[in-house]
Amino acid sequence: MKTEIKHVELENIISEINKLQTDTVLVIADHQVWSLYSKDLLLEQIENKKVLFWKAADGEKVKNITDFQNAMEFFLDKGIHRNAHLVVIGGGATSDFGGFVASTILRGIPWSIVPTTLLSMVDASIGGKVAINSKSGKNLIGAFHLPTNVWICPKFIETLPAVEKNSGMGEVLKYSFLDYSIYDLVIRKAEMSQIIDACAKFKEKLVTEDLKEIGIRKILNLGHSFGHAVEFIYNIPHGEAVMWGTALLFKLFGTEKNLNDIAALKKALEIPGDHAPWFNKEFPIDKIMMYLSKDKKISALSSLDMVIIKDIGNAEIETKSFDEIQATLEANKDELRKFTI
């Protein structure tokens, strides 16, 4: 199955939902998004369909076992069938959560996404990775379940808080290392709609080639192993954590050119903040290693697959042992206290 990625105007989202071939629509919407856009997305205008609505907690707060169970029981109690269609309205965390509900309820029903954050438009809504978090780490309970539709409406970006825009820019920065055409758009400061399209199409191509992430799709994990650890330790937005995870990777295993490139891209994308989250603090090697040991990308009990950038558009997967990673962190811990980009 291939996902249809389509640009739609805000006022046409309900008409797209009306086109779904089902008599039952399940809606999961982010609480904050719904408070801003419920008057633009009138569910009563969904015609000839039973509509079941579940409001999700904001962002990552919803990605837990308790909310997952509550949503499942809510929909099952209302009575649904396997041709029901779930529509998620929200950012990447909401689509992770809603997609996981869709992948498991009645052993899987079709679903579609209205991404409402920049991060979700360029990355999280595309590719079928769905998950909730565990106490042991981020996205460790999940599945692959491709959405039927991704309806992109850039108007949602207008009401994004600055911190969410910057988080999305962090993922755009990642894509800029993976594809030269995206890098060129960013450096030239092209229209954001062009950059969104380029990132979405690049990811869609990799997903088509490698849905289950056993080959080329792995390069999309650039910066994510360190990034997820940093995200948990410092409680910072995902895209920001990916940027710092990428920078940390380059500092430890990359080149001076990698670091110069990330500084140039950060400037072009106008991402604020030069100091790493651990700046002037003891670098948390033990905590980093603990999260790495539980990362989804471990290739064995003692090693981890990492994405190494040889040059813009040239990424390779290299397996690093935990002993090598820890030794490299230890050797650089004093420099890391003053790390900036």
UniProtKB/TrEMBL annotation:
Supply the InterPro entries for this chain. Answer: Dehydroquinate_synthase (IPR050071), DHQ_synth_fam (IPR030963), DHQS/DOIS_N (IPR030960), DHQS_C (IPR056179)
What Pfam families does UniProt report for this protein, alphabetically?
DHQ_synthase, DHQS_C
Which GO terms label this protein's molecular function in UniProt?
A: lyase activity
Please provide the record's keywords in A-Z order: Cobalt, Lyase, Metal-binding, NAD
Keyword NAD present in the record's keywords: the answer is yes
Q: Report the domain of life of the source organism.
A: Bacteria
Sequence ranges assigned to domain 3-dehydroquinate synthase N-terminal in this UniProt record? 56-164
The residues covered by the 3-dehydroquinate synthase C-terminal domain are 168-297
Q: Does the keyword Lyase apply?
A: yes
What CDD domains does the record tag this protein with?
Answer: DHQS (cd08195)
Q: Which cofactor does it need?
A: Co(2+); NAD(+)
EC id: 4.2.3.-
Q: What is this protein called?
A: 3-dehydroquinate synthase family protein
Organism name: Bacteriovorax antarcticus
